[in-house]
Write a structure and sequence with these properties.
It is a single chain. This protein has helices at 2-13, 21-24, 29-38, 40-49, 54-76, 78-88, 99-123, 151-167, 172-204, 206-239, 260-280, 310-316, 355-358, 417-425, 446-460; strands spanning 129-131, 134-137, 140-143, 286-294, 303-306, 320-327, 333-342, 365-369, 373-376, 382-392, 395-404, 432-441, 461-469. The strands form three sheets. Strands 5, 6, 7, 8, 9, 10, 11 and 12 form an eight-stranded antiparallel beta sheet that branches. A hairpin with a 2-residue loop joins strand 2 (134-137) and strand 3 (140-143). By secondary structure, the chain is of the alpha+beta class. The longest helix has 34 residues, at 206-239.
Length: 470
C-alpha cells in the first residue's frame, strides 16, 4: 500500500499547482494541524483498549489523512490539498470495513453466490440442493465459506479500480463507473469460482475441491485484475488527461513546509505514544492472568484432535488453538474449539467470530439464544457461557460459547460503544483473550445440552493463574 500511494503521489507531483501567496497564507493552518494531531491521543487510547474494534482504526486513518492534507494546505494552499487528496485517499483502502457493513455485504454476496451456483450446477445436469449456505449432493456436501462470498475479491477489485481511475485522471463519473464494473466483475467471477469448486466436489469429491480451492482463488484474482486493466486500456485514450509538468512555472514563491505547526504536531505525536502507554501502565500493580487448561485425559471417552483449517488460522491469528471431537456414551457427538490470544495477536476478526455469525455460513439455521449461565470448573472457577440453538437437516444442534479476558470475565463481542469507552476510561487494556465453543449434535432439549456442558466443564477444565507485572 505505501508503494502504491507513493506512485500516485509522484504522478500528482509532476503537475502540482503553482504556489501563490493568497493560497498559502491562511494563518490558521498550523492551529488546525495541532488540533488534528491532538485528536490522535484519545483515538490511540481507544485502540489500545479495544484492539478488535474497527472504529479507532478508521479514526486513525482519517486523522492521518487530514493531517497530511493540512500540511500540504499550509505549504501550497487549498489547491495543493485538493490536488493531492485523491492520491493520498488510497490509504483508506487499507482499513477493514466497519463490522456491520462487512457482515451485511458478506451475507448478501454469500447468498447470491450459493443460489447462482446451485442453479448453474443443476443446469449442468448435477443434482444439487441448497441448505443455507451449503451445497448438498449425493456424495456429501460443500460449504460455501465466507472466503468464497467475494468480499475479499470485492475489496481488492475496488482498490484496483480506484488506482486505475487515478492513474488515468478520469473524471469522477467515469471513476464511479469503473468501481461499479469492479463490483460486478468480482461478483460474477466468484460465482464462476464457486461453480467450478462445486462441480469438482460433485464429480471428484470434496477432498479434490479443497485441493483446488486456493489455486482457483489465485486464478480468479489474476483474471479480475486482467479484466479491469483491459477495460481501462480500452477507453484510456478517450478519458485520460495528459499530465503536463509545471516545473518551469515554479521560479516564484517557495514556502517553508515545516513551520511551527508541523514542529508542534511532531512533538504531540511523540507525546501521544508516551501518554497512551502511561495511561495503561500501573507499575505498582501485579495482575494475575488466568488460563484455561483442558485435561482431555479426564474426559472418559475416546477423543480426536483435529486440524483447524488454514483459512481459519490465518483469519483468527490465535496464539494457541485446538479442535477436538468425541462421542459420548449417550451417542451425542461433540466438537470443542479452544482458542487463546496474547495481547499482540488479537485480530480484528475476533469480534465477528461467534456462532450466530459463523455457523449460518455453513448451512445451519439459527433458532434462538439463551441468557448466560455460570458453570464451575474442576478447581472451582466460575465460567459464563451463552447458548445458541441451530437446525441442520431438521436436527437440533446446540452450541455453547464464551469469550473471556485475562481475569476470565465474559467479554461482550458486540461491544456497545458506551462499554468500550468505559473500558478505556477505567484503563482496562486487553492483556489476553481466550474462548471455548462446544457444539453438540444428537440432543433434543436445552436441559440435556446444559447437562452435557456442565459435565464436560466440571470434569475436564481447570484454571491456572500466573502473576504478571504491568
Amino acid at each position: 500500500m505505501p508503494i502504491l500511494v507513493i506512485l500516485l503521489w509522484q504522478q500528482r507531483w509532476q503537475n502540482r499547482p503553482t504556489i501563490g501567496l493568497s493560497e498559502s497564507s491562511f494563518r490558521y493552518w498550523p492551529i488546525i494541524l495541532v488540533f488534528l494531531t491532538a485528536a490522535l491521543l484519545p483515538t490511540q487510547l481507544l485502540l489500545l483498549a479495544n484492539p478488535d474494534w474497527r472504529a479507532p482504526y478508521w479514526a486513525w486513518a482519517i486523522l492521518a489523512l487530514k493531517i497530511t492534507l493540512t500540511c500540504l494546505a499550509h505549504h501550497g494552499g487549498v489547491p495543493w490539498m485538493l490536488h493531492f487528496a485523491p492520491a493520498l485517499s488510497l490509504m483508506l483502502f487499507a482499513v477493514p470495513w466497519p463490522t456491520t457493513l462487512e457482515q451485511q455485504v458478506n451475507t448478501s454476496l454469500l447468498g447470491g453466490v450459493v443460489i447462482a451456483t446451485s442453479e448453474a450446477l443443476n443446469l449442468l445436469g448435477l443434482t444439487v440442493a441448497r441448505s443455507g449456505n451449503t451445497l448438498v449432493f449425493a456424495q456429501g456436501q460443500l460449504g460455501v465459506e465466507d472466503a468464497c462470498s467475494g468480499i475479499r475479491s470485492l475489496h481488492g477489485s475496488l482498490m484496483i479500480a480506484y488506482i486505475l481511475g487515478e492513474l488515468g485522471r478520469w473524471k469522477w463519473p467515469w471513476r464511479l463507473s469503473l468501481l461499479l464494473l469492479a463490483t460486478i466483475d468480482a461478483f460474477l467471477l466468484n460465482i464462476l469460482r464457486a461453480i467450478f469448486l462445486g462441480w469438482t466436489a460433485v464429480v471428484q469429491g470434496t477432498e479434490s475441491a479443497d485441493r483446488w480451492h486456493d489455486s482457483v482463488g489465485i486464478t480468479i484474482t489474476a483474471l479480475t485484475l486482467f479484466l479491469l486493466v483491459a477495460a481501462y486500456l480500452l477507453v484510456e485514450r478517450k478519458l485520460s488527461h495528459p499530465i503536463q509538468s509545471t516545473r518551469e512555472n515554479r521560479n516564484g514563491l517557495h514556502r517553508q513546509l515545516v513551520g511551527w505547526g508541523a514542529f508542534a504536531s511532531f512533538l504531540l505525536l511523540g507525546g501521544t505514544l508516551m501518554a497512551s502507554s502511561m495511561w495503561f501502565k500501573q507499575s505498582d500493580r501485579t495482575i494475575f492472568r488466568k488460563k484455561l487448561v483442558i485435561e482431555w485425559e479426564n474426559l472418559g471417552h475416546a477423543f480426536t484432535h483435529e486440524e483447524i483449517p488454514y483459512r481459519a488460522r490465518t483469519q483468527l491469528r490465535y496464539t494457541e488453538g485446538k479442535r477436538t471431537s468425541w462421542i459420548s456414551s449417550e451417542g451425542t457427538k461433540a466438537t470443542a474449539y479452544h482458542f487463546r490470544w496474547d495481547r499482540d495477536r488479537i485480530s480484528l476478526f475476533n469480534a465477528i467470530h461467534r456462532p450466530e455469525v459463523c455457523l449460518p455460513s455453513v448451512g445451519l439455521k439459527w433458532i434462538e439464544s439463551t441468557e448466560t449461565i455460570n458453570i464451575t470448573t474442576s478447581n472451582g472457577t466460575p465460567l459464563s457461557f451463552q447458548g445458541h440453538q441451530f437446525f441442520s437437516h431438521n436436527r437440533p444442534i446446540f452450541v455453547w460459547f464464551g469469550v473471556w479476558d485475562h481475569a476470565l470475565k465474559l467479554i461482550d463481542l458486540e461491544g456497545a460503544p458506551g462499554n468500550r469507552l468505559r473500558q478505556t476510561w477505567e484503563r482496562k487494556r486487553v492483556e489476553s483473550r481466550q474462548s471455548i465453543e462446544l457444539i453438540l449434535t444428537g440432543q433434543q432439549t436445552w436441559p440435556e445440552a446444559e447437562a452435557s456442558l456442565r459435565d464436560w466443564v466440571s470434569t475436564t477444565i481447570k484454571t491456572t493463574s500466573t502473576p504478571t507485572n504491568r
